[in-house]
Write a structure and sequence with these properties.
By secondary structure, the protein is α+β, with helices and mostly antiparallel strands. It has 13 helices and 16 strands. Strand 10 and strand 11 form a beta hairpin. The radius of gyration is 32 Å and the shape is elongated. It starts with a helix and ends in a 27-residue tail after the last helix.
Length: 591
């Protein structure tokens, strides 16, 4: 067990070195951060209902602190919502918080280049997009150049990048029923795409259903007639006029409130493509869950969706309609905050209320899209009324005081152990050292991989863990003494017998503590949840240290004559265990 524990410590240390993570990430009170104030905007200009505000707070809290360990805080202040995000450079989180419009799914009616060509330049086709793979297992190109195939297959035409994020995300081109091979396990990023040149597609079979896997290209743009090649059937004249004059480079529509009962004209996130979209078929409130995962067959990252309520029926209708339509009307766009974040092609009618989106995703971009889909359905529209920086000066002073208090508590435990248990006190001191090392490594790695940020409530929980660890070895030591007193057993035998009884007590005590921490974590928010998380973490570490270090180390010491023979400084001598020395009795002999 000692070797296993050593291997775990070395592995965690190696992970820290590989990721260059040597210190914990600090929370808002210790590192400062950014505070964003959101002001609600209602259609009639009146005050929002408290119910809608409470729902918005819960959704935003899930966005910025879904795991409960990042130390981000979300609270109401009158009719406003105040979000405090720890750390410097949290632009991505602030951007995520600001994306507050309701998510809507709309069928694509028309698609075009986001901006007109420069004066004097005749464009013969839409800008070359970043190709994305279909759900059939083709792999996405990492670059922006589409690869060329000698024999193009149906569905291998390149599509406009309908949702590239500022981070460079190449969004999906295929939306299908979920694959049984998809899993949430981490995987390598997808490799390059093998697709045909843009604007080149296989001709559809007149006798068969339309090629639903074909990813449409934007129609050729001409400075004389920008609407050339656009099918205007069923498009409202007002929307058509807006589509004709829209320049995404000047007006990307970010923050626009798209009425669900009207057709909408919008742009992709990078402004390279503009769309005419049908009335909203499904809204974000119908999404039950959204998660990223890996297709076990292709190794590609994908996003999996599940709908609730009327969502499955609505989703089935819109995907069936899109599947039976010619490109680009075989796409369904996802609109968030007035911007098209993704517009995958429907490869088959999707029934059952579940679907998956495939594309040139990385783990980061798949998680980003999943979070936008899952937490995008807010009941209110918000404006960012202020963004302020938060100082960490006060928190730094409190941290210093907390560390001093922790050091004093640890020192008192060490002094008590050495005075009362003498030689056995070495075991308690080393147990505390091992627990401290493992806890520090766990906190650092959680910060690097799970967004864990150390705040004052966490530090309080870690200090409390000193008492939990001390309690465990005290229970064990006292059982050893009881066995030696009552059974007159040798130390080696007493160590094993005492462990059988002591471990039950230790497990029960730690189980009670862990259950309390779990309940507190799920029922509380903010600092209280942080305290509960730290307490639960250190409780698990205490069990590992007692089982993998304290007991094996005591068994090793029991073999040493210093402890086995009950040396006066071992802590196991007869005097320390209140045993009276045994004196031989003299029996008188009869003459």
């Amino acid at each position: 067990m000692l070797l296993v524990l050593l291997a775990i410590i070395l592995a965690m240390g190696g992970a820290m070195l590989l990721n260059k993570a040597y210190t914990p990430e600090y929370g808002l009170d210790l590192a400062g951060g950014t505070t964003v104030t959101l002001q609600p905007v209602t259609p009639n200009g009146g005050a929002p209902s408290q119910e809608s505000l409470d729902l918005a707070v819960n959704i935003i809290r899930e966005r910025v602190n879904g795991s409960g360990i990042s130390d981000a805080e979300v609270a109401k202040s009158g009719d406003n919502i105040v979000i405090s995000v720890p750390g410097a450079g949290q632009e991505e989180v602030v951007k995520l918080v600001g994306t507050t419009a309701e998510l809507r799914f709309r069928q694509v009616l028309a698609i075009g280049a986001g901006s007109p060509p420069p004066p004097g330049q005749l464009s013969t086709q839409a800008p070359t997009p970043t190709p994305s793979p279909s759900a059939s297992g083709r792999k996405g190109d990492k670059g922006n150049k589409p690869a060329e195939s000698a024999t193009p297959k149906p569905g291998t035409t390149a599509a406009p990048d309908t949702g590239a994020s500022p981070a460079g995300r190449a969004l999906s081109s295929a939306l299908t029923n979920p694959s049984p091979g998809a899993t949430a396990a981490p995987s390598a990023e997808p490799s390059g795409d093998t697709s045909a040149k843009p604007g080149r597609s296989a001709a559809p079979d007149a006798s068969a259903a339309p090629d639903a896997s074909a990813v449409p290209t934007a129609p050729p743009a001409s400075p004389d007639d920008p609407m050339a090649g656009v099918d205007t059937t069923g498009i409202d004249p007002a929307a058509l006029k807006r589509f004709e004059t829209l320049d995404c480079a000047k007006d990307a529509g970010v923050g626009a409130q798209d009425a669900p009962d009207k057709q909408y004209v919008g742009c992709s996130q990078d402004g390279s493509t503009k769309f005419v979209l049908e009335k909203a078929a499904v809204t974000g409130t119908s999404i039950d869950s959204a998660s990223s995962g890996v297709d076990q067959t292709t190794g590609e990252w994908l996003v999996q969706l599940a709908f609730k309520g009327q969502g499955p029926d609505q989703w089935s209708k819109v995907t069936t309609t899109a599947f039976n339509s010619q490109a680009p009307r075989n796409q369904v766009a996802m609109v968030l905050d007035g911007v098209v974040i993704s517009a995958p092609v429907i490869q088959e009618p999707i029934t059952g209320g579940r679907a998956q989106i495939s594309g040139s995703f990385t783990q980061v971009t798949a998680d980003e899209l999943a979070n936008q889909l899952k937490y995008g359905a807010l009941p209110l529209k918000f404006e960012k009324s202020s963004i302020e920086e938060v100082s960490s000066t006060l928190g730094a002073d409190q941290l210093r005081g907390g560390l001093i208090a922790g050091a004093i508590g640890l020192l008192l435990v060490v002094i008590y152990s050495m005075l009362y248990y003498r030689g056995l006190g070495i075991v308690s001191v080393l147990s505390l050292v091992v627990a401290t090392v493992v806890t520090y490594q766990a906190v650092v790695l959680l910060g690097a991989f799970a967004g864990f940020r150390l705040s004052l409530p966490h530090i309080i929980g870690l200090i409390v863990s000193i008492g939990i660890t001390a309690d465990s070895f005290i229970v064990y030591f006292e059982r050893i003494r009881d066995e030696m007193k009552e059974g007159r057993r040798s130390l080696r035998t007493a160590v094993e017998v005492a462990w059988v009884r002591a471990r039950r007590t230790i497990l029960i005590a730690d189980a009670v503590m862990f259950i309390a921490a779990v309940v507190l974590y799920f029922l509380a928010v903010g600092g209280v949840a942080g305290f509960a998380f730290a307490m639960g973490l250190t409780t698990l570490i205490d069990i590992a240290v007692v089982f993998m270090f304290t007991k094996p180390f005591v068994a090793m010491l029991a073999k040493l004559p210093f402890f086995a023979k009950g040396h006066k400084l071992s802590g196991l001598d007869a005097e320390r265990m209140s045993e009276a020395p045994v004196t031989p009795k003299t029996v008188p002999q009869e003459a």
